[in-house]
């Protein structure tokens, strides 16, 4: 099927029969999925469920084994990130020897849509010294710089792979609040993977739950949880059931 001919081709992500097989086996299987615009998507699932693999496929850093996907109507071609997409990987790769100023300068050089004032504003808001070398920053400060780099590109889709993992509870709250504000005011679709389900409540309005490389549940939270079950509980209930069925 020609995905580009779909009428809804400008949606952030459309995946059809998407699969990725590594030498050890399938990391993602038969994934058909739509990420609607202007959602903050919780991408959740147990360790090894395929969350990072799905993000890698959306960025184009990984090639699908089966099926295909479009990102704003384009097929990721492995030629670098889509101009409308920012990706913050789990390891938050930044140049340790660069100062924050130099890091943002690199962002400006490599992104035609870069907004320097906005990126600086995000760093200043986090009280991170612009002259400090990245290697000397705390985990939380590095996350804020990485986030400024990702948002400074003014993306339409922001992919965040466990961005909160090395933050203290207060910093997690601040980063999530910043994210929600920026996403809502700038009209950014966010895909956020996390294991801390409770934190995603009130933040994410769309859920994609992976289990064993397959989509177990996907959709807007208010539709999936008509009885008002909180997102975390909803996801955990489905994960428990899937694990029990697997063990039976
Ligand atoms: N480069 C790779 N080579 C071989 N197998 C891989 C590779 N990357 C991931 N896998 C395997 O694919 C499966 C899915 O991994 P993935 O990292 O996508 O899961 P995840 O949901 O992000 O996990 P976690 O929550 O632990 O970060 C796992 O079984 C993993 O071991």
TrEMBL record:
Task: Output the PROSITE patterns linked to this UniProt entry.
Answer: ABC_TRANSPORTER_1, ABC_TRANSPORTER_2
CDD domains membership: ABC_DR_subfamily_A
The GO terms this record gives for MF are: ATP binding; ATP hydrolysis activity
Using the record's annotation, list all stretches that form the ABC transporter domain: 13-237
Query: Which InterPro entries does the record cross-reference, listed alphabetically?
Result: AAA+_ATPase, ABC_transporter-like_ATP-bd, ABC_transporter-like_CS, P-loop_NTPase
Q: List UniProt keywords, sorted A-Z.
A: ATP-binding, Nucleotide-binding
Checking SMART domains in the record gives: AAA
The name of this protein is ABC transporter ATP-binding protein
């Amino acid at each position: 099927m020609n995905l580009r001919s779909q009428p809804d081709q400008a949606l952030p992500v459309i995946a059809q029969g998407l699969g990725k097989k590594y030498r050890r086996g399938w990391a993602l299987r038969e994934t058909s999925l739509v990420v609607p615009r202007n959602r903050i998507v919780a991408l959740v699932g147990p360790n090894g469920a395929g969350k990072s693999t799905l993000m890698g496929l959306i960025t184009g850093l990984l090639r699908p084994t089966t099926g295909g996907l479009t990102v704003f109507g384009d097929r990721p071609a492995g030629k670098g990130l889509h101009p409308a997409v920012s990706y913050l990987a789990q390891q938050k790769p930044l140049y340790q020897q660069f100062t924050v100023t130099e890091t943002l300068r690199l962002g400006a050089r490599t992104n035609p849509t870069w907004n320097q004032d906005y990126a600086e504003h995000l760093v200043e808001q986090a009280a991170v010294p612009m002259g400090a070398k990245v290697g000397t920053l705390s985990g939380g400060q590095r996350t804020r710089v990485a986030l400024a780099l990702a948002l400074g590109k003014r993306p339409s889709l922001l992919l965040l792979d466990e961005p909160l993992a090395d933050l203290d509870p207060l910093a997690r709250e601040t980063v999530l609040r910043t994210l929600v504000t920026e996403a809502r005011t700038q009209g950014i679709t966010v895909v956020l993977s996390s294991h801390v389900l409770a934190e995603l409540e009130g933040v994410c309005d769309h859920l994609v739950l992976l289990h064993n490389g397959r989509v177990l549940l996907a959709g807007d939270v208010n539709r999936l949880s008509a009885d008002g079950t909180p997102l975390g509980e909803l996801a955990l209930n489905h994960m428990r059931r899937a694990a029990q069925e697997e063990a039976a």
